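@channel sequence for tomorrow's demo:
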Amino acid sequence: MPLHVSSERIMEIILKQPVRNLGDKDDVVKVKPGFARNYLIPQGLAVMATASAKKALEDTKAQASHKVEFVKQQAADEAAKLSAAKIIIETLAGADGKLFGSVTTLMISTKLKEQGFDIDRKSITIEDIRNTGEYTATIHLHKEVKAEVPVEVIAKED
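structure tokens (generated this afternoon):
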């Protein structure tokens, strides 16, 4: 019995969640049929982009568009408040200013919580901080909204 070989070379799918190097949730993307049928669809990452699925997606996007703007505005307001904040971290350091360890996103998240901001450490990016001094932490509040927060690292006095 001969195997059925698909003459399709490209297939359209709708992503149900973000997929690295492919797209975000609700994006309609074109992929090879084998990738879609053998990985994306069985893993629950995508659905076939049929006419009815595309229509349902458009309806959902229309309903969600005003909610997205509201969430984005809230993130922008939060970013404005965060930009006014300043984080001071006291940690053990040598005489030359070199830290015993490094400053982590968890430390920054904890300091922000003390100031009334509930920021998950996974949404904070910082450079590798291993010396005392002034740095900047970037907080990703929304895919289009980021806040820059100054971080000052000082040596803890005994």
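heads up for whoever presents: The domain at 76-155 is CATH 3.10.430.100 (Ribosomal Protein L9; domain 2).
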